[in-house]
Amino acid sequence: MICITPESPSFADDGYGPPPSKWKGVCQVGPSFKAKSCNRKLIGARWYIDDDTLRSMSKDEILSPRDVVGHGTHTASTAGGNIIHNASILGLAAGTVRGGAPRARVAMYKTCWNGVGCSAAGQLKAIDDAIHDGVDILSLSLGGPFEDPGTLHVVAKGIPVVYSAGNDGPIAQTVENSSPWLLTVAAATMDRSFPVVITLGNNDKFVAQSFAISGKTSSQFGEIQFYEREDAENIHNTVKGKIVFCFFGTKFDSERDYYNITKATSEKGGIGVILPKYNTDTLLGDTLLTLPIPLVAVDYEITYRIYQYIKENDGTPKVKISLTQTTIGKVSAPKVAAFSSRGPSYIYPGVLKPDIAAPGVTVLAAAPKAFMDAGIPYRFDSGTSMSCPHVSGIIAVLKSLHPQWSPAALKSAIMTTALTYDNNGMPIQANGKVPKIADPFDYGAGVVNPNMAADPGLIYDIEPSDYFKFFNCMGGLGSADNCTTVKGSLADLNLPSIAIPNLRTFQATTRTVTNVGQANARYKAFLYTPAGVEMTVDPPVLVFSKEKKVQSFKVTIKATGRPIQGDYSFGSLVWHDGGIHWVRIPIAVRITDIDAPRVSVIATAQTSYDNATTYDNNRMPVRNIPKVADPFDYGAGFINPNMAADLGLIYDIAASNYLKFFNCIGGLATGDNCTTAKRSLADLNLPSIAIPNLKTF
């Protein structure tokens, strides 16, 4: 639904035959887009504009399917671009680029315009044209605060609709495109990284991620110029030949004007910038490559170590920045991107969203013509716009393998086979200002696992007409359908997930599964129960045969605590056949007192350090909204004064013992300054253990 660069090698038609006989699309011409711009790969292109958009759009826009920004080109090549070897951007991320379905045909419908955004009327018309033209999948890397009408009409025609989840994370309740018939995609990192090594004059080394390429860094030591102010206007001419280091004190949460600081440093003759940033998910992109000198973002621990070095250095503090390397498999991945919008849906709390996560951080894909003219045919971009076409391409492959599957069945296969563990076998984490273990409001069912999705074992299917039982659909299944209000509880809608936003006592919900694997199969239920509830499944075993391919079961969820206004807890239900099939659906439950207003709850305080409570007044894990709290949130837990009076054992430390571990200028005198550690603090007799760099044991 955006635009395209037809000259990109990702859309060349070498080796392609004529378009499918069912294809009825057109190649709508315009400036910089002739009829020959379409080919046997890019088989259709249309554009839509209204008078208001025409008056308000950017002056560099072109009234044709031509892409002037790069968004549509990037996403289209991610979904269905050709296999291109020896691709990179300025030598970074070198390798082979390909779309999720590299032999798929591509058709583009331009409804979004630079400087204005997307036309709702144009989008409706484009969707209708796409159905008429004969598309098999709609991939929509766009969104807004409200649901788009007309999409159920597409699904009723057997066409899956894949949307991006939005880029307003890590804030809760920001997920977009949450209608249950849509496949809504969150963004995650991948195991490719771009490390640089920062070396101080004392030979301390730190690893960060940035783009420091040949010609922009000398990899030689340079003097450090220290700034405690964050404005580009404060950069002085004295930075010439130096590397600027910024430490902004206690303002940890502010987003800095990193790019203007770096440009100002370069204009004054500086050769690099190092500054703090809690997360780099949005930093590693094309803009970083346009900067004339390296900009390296580091976490606050490294920031403080550099600050200490500067303050304690008797001579001239120096630092050097290495060239960037491209590495694969050296970082924990995937992780949910910090910017990826989070659930629950404020429009449909009874629909668990997002549905799935896919790669969406520093994705290399096709570039617009302006980049190509500069010798850069492929570029980086990040966002749920980038994760959406990954899933669209996978859906295209699955649809070719299983042409009889409905959009709901395809969605089920994607969700029930998703990954919840990273490449180290650890639970997937969610990046943010407070990193945490990911939950279904971060990534839905998990991160997409295309190989397993081809053989899911069981599917949760939904007929389009079933939605009428749960939604008031003005226009029915027509092209102007508008199904934005629910009739009642969505608990029994046969989704591959369960969300119960207001559980007071108990809730029973029914699901139906269809066996698409081996005809004779026996599946056993495994329950991972959310905290604060009891959960049962009836029957606990499903037996399938050639004659009996469809089975229903009932899930009953019962609150075990008293009915107060609580927060969500998470679990899952897995059906396992004893072989390769683990058919998993996520579950989100919030216990509530429906007679009480919705309020935020602060847990009652309770801890002695070693008798601290980690549970709230409903015996639920203490939460740092929107996650279960951990020791970096509350230390040992909430204070419990009664237990602290009789704790049994204590961990004691004599004041002089600290001198064994710290360099204390002034000793124990009134002017003592113990700000640097001599060695590991692991043996300091604290009532806690922190090991920040465990290599073996």
Verbal overview:
The chain is of the alpha/beta class and 697 residues long. The protein has 14 helices and 39 strands. The strands form 13 sheets. A 7-stranded mixed β-sheet has the order 12-11-17-13-14-15-16. α2 (71-80) packs parallel to α9. It starts with 41 loop residues before the first strand and ends in a 20-residue tail after the last strand.
Concise synopsis of the structure shown:
With 697 residues, this protein is of the alpha/beta class. Strand 36 (623-624) and strand 37 (627-628) form a beta hairpin. Helix 2 runs parallel beside helix 9.
Please write out the topology.
Layout: E1 42-47, H1 51-56, H2 71-80, E2 84-89, E3 92-97, E4 106-110, E5 112-113, E6 117-118, H3 120-133, E7 138-140, H4 151-156, E8 161-164, E9 183-188, E10 192-193, E11 195-200, E12 205-209, E13 222-227, E14 243-246, H5 258-267, E15 272-276, H6 286-290, E16 295-298, H7 300-312, E17 318-321, E18 327-328, E19 335-336, E20 356-359, E21 363-366, H8 369-373, E22 378-381, H9 384-401, H10 407-416, E23 429-430, E24 436-437, H11 440-443, H12 450-453, E25 458-459, E26 471-474, E27 482-486, E28 498-503, E29 506-515, E30 521-528, E31 533-538, E32 541-544, E33 550-559, E34 568-576, E35 582-591, E36 623-624, E37 627-628, H13 631-634, H14 641-644, E38 662-665, E39 673-677
Parallel strand pairs: 1-4, 7-8, 8-9, 9-20, 13-14, 14-15, 15-16, 19-23, 28-35
Antiparallel strand pairs: 2-3, 5-6, 10-18, 11-12, 11-17, 13-17, 21-22, 23-24, 25-29, 26-27, 29-33, 30-32, 30-34, 31-33, 34-35, 36-37, 38-39
Organism: Oryza sativa subsp. japonica
GO biological process, one term: proteolysis
Protein name: Os04g0120300 protein
